[in-house]
Amino acid sequence: MTTEKISDQIKFAYWVPNVSGGLVTSEIEQRTGWDFEYNKRLAQTAERVGFEYALSQVRYMASYGAEYQHESTSFSLALLGATEKLKVIAAVHPGLWHPAVLAKFGATADHLSGGRFAINVVSGWFAGEFRALGEPWLEHDERYRRSAEFLQAIRKIWTEDDVEFAGDFYRIRDFTLKPKPLNTPERPNPELFQGGNSTAARFNGGNYADWYFSNGKDFDGVTDQLDDLRRIAREARREVRFGLNGFIIARDTEKEARDTLREIVDKANRPAVEGFRDAVQQAGRSTSDGRGMWADSSFEDLVQYNDGFRSQLIGTPEQVAERIVAYKELGVDLILGGFLHFQEEIEYFGEKVLPLVREIEASRAKALV
To answer: Can you give the pTM of this predicted structure?
Structure first.
């Protein structure tokens, strides 16, 4: 099995704004709240208009415009309790979690939500968090090697009894988790996402994850990552799905959308963006081949801190829908969307963009018959 099969329909996720400051490091108005009541309403809206997933962010201390943060796993559990169908992905840091402890939490969350819990393994970019908490800060490739063990260990714990695991970072002896998550043939364990851009991230995604999350990329960047991921997955005789980050600015006219992008960048919080750039570009360039996340990101790219502008999901509903389907035809399985004003723009997306995506998909499928 490989990732080469193109899905019948692309899926949609959104970034949960569980940290303050919105999703762009800019002084532009962002009618987005980070409190639970706002996020509860937002999750219910997203579920109603056709989003299948939500991703809760993880930060443990103030950094680069995010003054306040709600913890990702507990926040995810609360959102699961407030919805009926939405799958919620909690971002977690190996090194700050033990895989067996998270596996226990995840199994409980899975039972409480009827099988809708997932995790995104974030290998870590913010050294200050680890140092503030007295935890060792590993070099880039070592962080991803730890994540590889984390992914392997948690899957074994979720699916096997009497687990034995002997790695360089984790050692587990005769451990059985009861109850297991609500595993099914269609979903043999809660979904495991691996984020990143680097060679090490692609290796982990292809070998150990169910999904690979990419930072924002244009068509060439997506093709490069997909080709590499497919090769790795093919060699491991696995199937891995591909999610792409994109900051979505859908407006009635292209000019309005482009003007909004320009205003976001013009009003960027320059000290915060430059501080973030100094932190993350050192991390990206510290990889053995220099292909880490943010290694070649411009100042404008980093105003949306996961390179979301690069995916160019900016324009009229028709333009955004066409570009989404073009990504799907390259092999993208899911779009992870960020928005300026989350509540109103997710409603707009569900009303104006998503139906066009489904129409284009159906039309293209019919033409192939």
So the answer is: 0.94
**Which stretches within the chain are classed as H helix?**
36-49, 72-82, 99-113, 127-132, 140-159, 199-208, 219-235, 254-266, 270-285, 299-303, 317-330, 342-348, 354-368
Amino acid identity at 140:
H
Tell me the one-letter amino acid at 243: G
188-238 pLDDT per residue, tens: 999 999 998 899 999 999 999 999 999 999 999 999 999 999 999 999 999
Query: Strand 11-16 vs strand 334-338: parallel, antiparallel, or unpaired?
Result: parallel
Tell me which DSSP letter residue 7 carries: P
In a domain, 113, yes or no: yes
- Mean per-residue pLDDT, 48-66: 92
Question: How far apart are the C-alpha atoms of 1 and 5, rounded to whole Å?
Answer: 9
Positive or negative, the CA dihedral 138, 66, 306, 276 is negative
Identify residue 6 by its one-letter amino acid code.
I
Token code pair at residue 305: 């801190």
301 lies in a domain? no
| 357 exposure class (CB count in 10 Å sphere: 0-12, 13-18, 19+) | buried
Helix 72-82 vs helix 36-49: crossing angle, to nearest 10: 50
For 158, residues 6+ apart whose C-beta sits below 8 A from its C-beta are: 103, 106, 107, 177, 180, 181, 183, 189, 190
Q: CB-based contacts of 34: which residues, under 8 Å, 6+ apart?
A: 17, 18, 19, 20, 21, 68, 70
Angle of the 99-113 helix axis to the 140-159 helix axis, nearest 10? 50
286: in domain: no
Q: How many CA atoms lie within 13 A of 126 on its CB side?
A: 19
Domain-embedded: residue 118: yes
Helix (H, G, I), strand (E, B) or coil at 23: coil
* Structural domain of 342: 11-265+308-368
- According to DSSP, residue 6 is labeled P
At 163, which CATH number? 3.20.20.30
Number of domains in the chain: 1
